[in-house]
Amino acid sequence: MAWIPAKHISPGGFLILVMSCPERPTTRLRNLILAEPILVVPVVHDPLCARIAEQAGFSAIFSAGYANSAALLGRPDVGLLTLTEMVDCASRIVDATSIPVFADGDTGYGNVTNVVRTISMYEKAGVGGVFIEDQVSPKRCGHMAGKALIAPEEMAAKVRAAVDAREDPDLVIMARTDAIAVNGIDDAIERANLYYEAGADLTFVEAPESVAQMRRICREVRGPSFANMLPGGKTPVLSASELEAIGYAVVADAVSCTYAIAKAVQFVFSELKRTGSSASYSDRLMGFDEFNRLVGLDEIREREQSYSCRFF
Length: 312
What we know:
Layout lengths: L1 E8 L5 E6 L4 H10 L4 E4 L4 H10 L4 E3 L1 H9 L9 H14 L4 E4 L7 H14 L3 E5 L18 H14 L6 E6 L1 H5 L1 H13 L4 E4 L5 H10 L5 E4 L10 H7 L3 E4 L2 H20 L12 H7 L2 H10 L6
Parallel strand pairs: 3-10, 4-5, 5-6, 6-7, 7-8, 9-10
Antiparallel strand pairs: 1-2
């Protein structure tokens, strides 16, 4: 928050000051979704990866259950994480970065009463947007088998509850449907439109199985659409420009961060166990000074020096 002096003095002799507030993360995320080109959001599961994403130049990031389940529990995305665990993860990411965070609200963790609490807790954590989905609990990753859905009217009620619960009208509410895998594309499109009518700002028709289905979604769903790219999943993996040409407003890269870390650590530990030393792969690691800059040591040093404190 900055105080900016006005260009004149009031008749009473007082300097008139106006307060300039930074744009809220909710407003920033909403504007990014509405703007062109397509918004690309990488999924991150911890503050370190969030900092790397911001450093790479991304305008927003996503905190999602699939990656969080792997990072926090070492388990698959099958509804094991609680609301408080998910909010805590998102809150830490919010604190580590200056870009908006889109958060995963899963099924809302219950009925409309639970949805209200979900939105309230995420809003207090400082996220820019939240999505909820129409699976029954415990939910599944959208590209896994065994999904089941609640009635569309029940989900629409959850969307209305989410919209009514937000204190900041710019908090982005996204509604996800997993109906393609259960009932087919026609039901998925009907549900997405129903959720828009209930007040959703954005819809996410999960796991389309062809480019033709993706085109139908963007053509027939009344409002901005969200795409989820997951290599090895059910949906064709397209570039951001290809998705924008189809009509998508936002695309999440769901797994690159998590899979890259898993593969890299797997290699490093294998070599460490085999050789007993990190020398063979030291050129592939981030250096000590570079890593300390990434996690903000320079800023901490500057702050401590400004207060004449002992510094690192």
